[in-house]
Amino acid sequence: xxxxxxxxxxxxxxxxxxxxxxxxxxxxxxxxxxxxxxxxxxxxxxxxxxxxxxxxxxxxxxxxxxxxxxxxxxxxxxxxxxxxxxxxxxxxxxxxxxxxxxxxxxxxxxxxxxxxxxxxxxxxxxxxxxxxxxxxxxxxxxxxxxxxxxxxxxxxxxxxxxxxxxxxxxxxxxxxxxxxxxxxxxxxxxxxxxxxxxxxxxxxxxxxxxxxxxxxxxxxxxxxxxxxxxxxxxxxxxxxxxxxxxxxxxxxxxxxxxxxxxxxxxxxxxxxxxxxxxxxxxxxxxxxxxxxxxxxxxxxxxxxxxxxxxxxxxxxxxxxxxxxxxxxxxxxxxxxxxxxxxxxxxxxxxxxxxxxxxxxxx
Length: 362
Ligand SMILES: [Zn+2]
Ligand SMILES: [Zn+2]
Prior knowledge:
- The protein is mostly helical.
- The protein has helices spanning about 5-15, 30-50, 55-80, 85-95, 105-120, 135, 140-145, 150-160, 165-175, 185-205, 210-235, 245-250, 255-260, 270-275, 280-290, 300-310, 350-360, and strands at about 250-255, 300, 315, 320-325, 330.
- It has two domains: about 5-300, no CATH class; about 305-360, no CATH class.
- The strands form two sheets. The chain has a three-stranded antiparallel β-sheet.
- The radius of gyration is 21 Å and the shape is globular.
- One of its GO terms (cellular component) is membrane.
């Protein structure tokens, strides 16, 4: 593999080609957020106050799920400080945008801005990276999942995308709460409990059926949409010791109107190069990256990335490969032999096979 570089190394080489305004906050992004928020409120009120048929409720639910996801993408942007600069306003607006997904602003900044961005795809330090074969041994549930036949396991993994963000967010709360000072802990708790208290209050007020259409189903849909991106952002890439966004991240491509709805979240490599830059300018960064390091840059359509995700296991083997521990098959990662157009297990010689057998047997 070519020598890895930090995101600062790349950023320093691209920044001279970018206009100054690319580094200034863009509060106009909030208008789109307001539109999503109004649609979400109108949808919840319609389900709550009007007796509608199941089908109309279902359509509203789907729209709500899409706005939950879009607001989450905007929340991500706001909490990186690229929309408004004032810290209290950033946290307030970010908290509102993340309210449907019930993730607190402070927790998110710690989990995502600090830990994920500083240690992307680091085997131990990135809270979002997947397990290595050594770590799998300590995870009974996943060991069991990997014993399931391939088709069922892939289906279960995809189904789990409908709740992974919410569950992972609760896990992150448990993991990082201890890192907040005793003065900050109450606000972190408040930012967790307020959304959940609201959704539970809505359950009491609306009853289970309307609540399912107004919150539960949209939450599952919103989870699936954000996880479709999050799970393809890094999980086809290798684990790395140097935080090199061109090696450890993937940019997916979606139709233009989807990029508009999702605030350019698809440009994930660009985002890791310039997390403090408003995503509005990522197409510019992409142009430069493709000019300067065309062989290192990874991009593909979201559907192709999802297809690659379906066909490959999620356990890392020696950082660069993905291993199916049950069938003892090895697949490359992006930049390390994985061809998304033609996904096949690697050919292995006897020595490799026996080394894999050893690492998967205990
Ligand atoms: Zn990322
Ligand atoms: Zn980010």
